[in-house]
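Continuing the batch. This is chain 6 of the set; chains 1 through 5 are on the previous pages. Same settings as before, nothing changed between runs. Recording input and output for traceability.
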Amino acid sequence: MLTIRKLKKSYGGETLFEEADLQINYGERIALVGPNGAGKSTIFRIILKEEEADKGTVERDEWTLVGFLAQESEAVGDYTVIQIATGRAGEIEKLEATLKALEDAGTVETREYSEAQSMYDALNDPKVEAKAKKMLRGLGYAETDFERPAKEMSGGWIMRAHLARLLVIEPDLLMLDEPTNHLDLMSLLWFQDYLKNYSGAILMISHDREFMDELVESVYDIAEKKLNSYTGNYSAFVEQRHNQYVQQNNAYKNQQKQIKDLQAFANKFRSVSSKASQAQSKLKEIERMEKIDKPMSPKKPFRFQIPDPPRGGQKAMTLEEIDFAYGKHKVYEDLDLSIERGERTVLVGPNGSGKSTLLKLLAGELTAQSGTYTAGHNAKIGYFSQHRAATLDPNASVLSEVMGAAPTLREDEARGILGSFMFRKEEVYKMTKVLSGGEKSRLNLVKFLVDPPNILLMDEPTTHLDILTVESLILALQSYAGTLVFISHDVHFIKTLATDVIHVANGIAKRFHGDWDYFIEKSGAGDERAALTAD
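Output for chain 6:
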């Protein structure tokens, strides 16, 4: 289907990768991994002919239809959600013009004409709208949103409409760049199940370990400017890479010892006439050796010990007989909930069930119409949300913001944790006013970690993080001595951290005193998606 041979790409004299080979066959599921800046998105752009390689070739089967979901959403104009999801938004007219131009030029026996004709036929299929609505529902849209202008919606919801469009088209090769970033847990699990039965090939970049474990069959890792292939899912890749490193490192150490011993013999006896020929032979043996390079250790998550927060009361926070509504829409009525000190609780449930509302009620960001909210003794509450305005000094640097949050922190410690959250080298001196939304979220996350409250409320903390940074955050929160309540679409994050689960649905918050697997078992639903939608 698609073959990359001997690919090389450099920027400003620095090589990202060279001699890179990659083979994608029909129906394969492949993950492309590597640290930020390694060149993953660059390989995508080269495949899509948006960028030229310095060397090498990309060969694609002539009739292969490729679909691509970018990290950033495209402009939507005045089109509705359903127009985008069907793919008709601006496309029908363009395809008609392309087909006419190719017909006028007499070039109908070409891949370009075939792709345009296939796309045109697909968009005009009378079943396409029904299929688009099915995809939109799966991705979390309500029926009432289908005819809404997309520009009224957030970037994340626009991305879902574009994702629905790709799934409607069903390209032979589906290229996904961080597809789970803008999905909640419910829509992610639907998308994951859908892709398990997808007939085409998939090439993905993702920071979601569980998502890759469930879907991919092989992994290509960009490391030390090489593209290395591994068989199996992401966890299998991590194990294989570790074993390879251990084997190569042992081989390197053994060879170095051998070289040292041979050199020592030569140094000792080269001036002894009776042993001079033997000494020379040892030196030649060293020269003839095929030297083993010292392997670079795979990057590991940054281990950061969160300072112990002030100790709070046994009851961290309590909601009693809470009523809350947005206008006439009742979310909670007579809600009782208690959070105990030291719990690590995840809030789960269907789309629109009120998880974020509950988190905001616990944070004091929203005030109930009736009922009692009580923060426990000595409570120090921190609320982290992707959508909350950053409390950052626009004229302060990234580094000074962190140092100001924790005055006892040494600069090297601050730079270390900032590096693990993707602020590297000179980036720590950037003014916060020039940071992107994702960078501001990461900086606020670091500020929470260096000066933690004793109650930490987090809404989707792993968005905008790469896979190593997610692992760093997990390690930090595992050692956190306070109380944690969070919402996440990252199943690996949930499985690793949650000690309690609260299922939110129909205005009821039902507690399960156990981890994610315990919740699935006790819900009696049989699988993860069914457990989330259960009453």
